[in-house]
User: Fold this.
Amino acid sequence: MCGIAGIFHPRDMIAPAPGALRTRLTAMSDAMVHRGPDGDGIWAAEDGRIGLAHRRLAIIDLSPDAAQPMTNADGTVHITYNGEIYNHLKLRAELESAGHRFRTDHSDTEVLVHGYTHWGLDGLVERLDGMFAFAIWDSGAGRLSLARDRVGIKPIYFTRTGGMFRFASEIKAILTEADVPRAVDAHALGHYLSFMVAPAPLTLFKGIYKLPAGHVLEIDAEGRAKARRYWSAVPARSPAAEGASAATYAAGVRERLSAAVEKRMMSDVPFGVFLSGGIDSSANVALMSAVSARPVETFTVGFKDHLHLNELDYARAVADRFQTNHHEVLIDGRDMEGYLADLVHHQDEPIADWVCVPLYFVSKLAKESGVTVVQVGEGSDEQFCGYDSWMTYLSMYRKFWRPYTDTMPRPLLAALGSLASALAPTSRTAGAQAAEALLRAGQGHALFWSGANAFWNVHKTRVLDAAAEAPDWADLMDMGFDLSGLASNDSGDVADGYFRALAAEHPDTDQLTRMIHAEFRLRLPELLLMRVDKVTMSTSVEGRVPFLDHALVEYTMDIPSAAKIGGGVKKRILKEAVAGLVPDNIINRPKMGFAAPVADWLRGDFGAAAEADVMKSPLVADGPLKRDYVARLFKEHRAGSADHALHLWTINNLTAWHAHWIA
Assistant:
């Protein structure tokens, strides 16, 4: 795992001297030392038009020969790359049989260089099994190519200012360039309030974008840029047999998950597992233990002051069952407050998920214990329907949504939606959820938007003061990105865009499959996986996600929903897949989720300090957030008359980001 950056001047621009370019690239690299404390490298073309930077966290082939940026034998192709390619040895053998000669012992980076020259960009990315974000400069073609892995495990950001193109693993590296403006994208801010993160390709920074998951972006010598999607989580990618038995599907899941865990043990440095004691992390431990020659290193975080949230006993039971080398850390509100400034810095743009707090401390524990690579359980709940809220959505869709929207006249739907919105409670109660469902029906939206939905529309219209003006995204449009719904002030249009895109190719998908697809478009890559990347990498630890192995994802997308939740059992197929491997009391235990006691913290000293900071923020004092409404949320929450924790955490993250990066 590493950090990458680069600067490209199209042909019609005056390029700097190579020395000046190297100085700027060094500043970009230095902003990401945490991503690669084991080394750094700079390459700048002789004409100063293109330069690449790299920070190295040495995991595969620790020798100096594997350092980056790396080039081919004749110096016509250069690469800077972040990630891990799990099938690199297989690809190396294939390339060697075709006549390619390698100078490194087992560097996966060199496989990318030779693979690009042999198969081209499209042929390369379709063969890669792993997580990656890379940039390749092809001097012969005069072309810069960027790529992000299928699921979006690794990030890559870019901007074009004055015709100059810049990219990096983190936005803070781009911001070292003095002429890159720091301003808020108003549409991204509105969607952030809904989804707790900005949907790709937007970020909260106006004019700075992120390459969506499963995309490549190519920029030619004149600066013309074209993006295209090469993969998406849709049905019909796997040979999973239609109508197979649940037992067959369970066997297929176990086979693919076992392979995914084992291949992610590829490392020349120590590795381990984040263990909560739930089915996902316990399956990781069990499968890793089965093929590990030494005890697995496991890491768990708990709370000193809110014992009811702890899963320590479950984690200890799993650690004891598989004889792991187990480590624990306990935190409290003071630890959280001491970390928040660093959190804001390392996130780059706000990720309003309080799980980032315990995730940081367990990542730090792993690093202090000598472990550099960890496996995590992200992606399981989305594929196998592991959330209570999803079961609620599915029940509501079947029992209420379809009969209601199919039979009621459109004008009446709209009128009832408006009335329900006006009467909705300010907090996220069942009454507010019902009002939101009526409003979505009245506005013609889908029922499900995302598993992470902070401000519902019945609330967002009360906190957000003004509609954003039409955005200036001509550059993004020319690049060919799907911007469906992003220019709207209604975030429901974003979710609807995902569903329309899926329906155009796969019109017969059921509701659960549509929900899963939407999560792979937004919540998984931009919220859940970015919290893993940003937080673990801030401690120089690499997180790997076996449940998001693309072969497993393609297989599960073809498993019928009736098999996934047969009998109303969440994660039914996964539970059958790991039966006999993971203890029954872990498989059948109630799901707790990876939480933090933020509601209580906001009612104490932290809440008072957060309120003072939020209320003096320009985003509240001058808009677009409504000052009186935000003050009301703090007052009601701190008095205990309502639970506004998610809304307040979302706002606090936003205003803290603005104070750190903009104001």
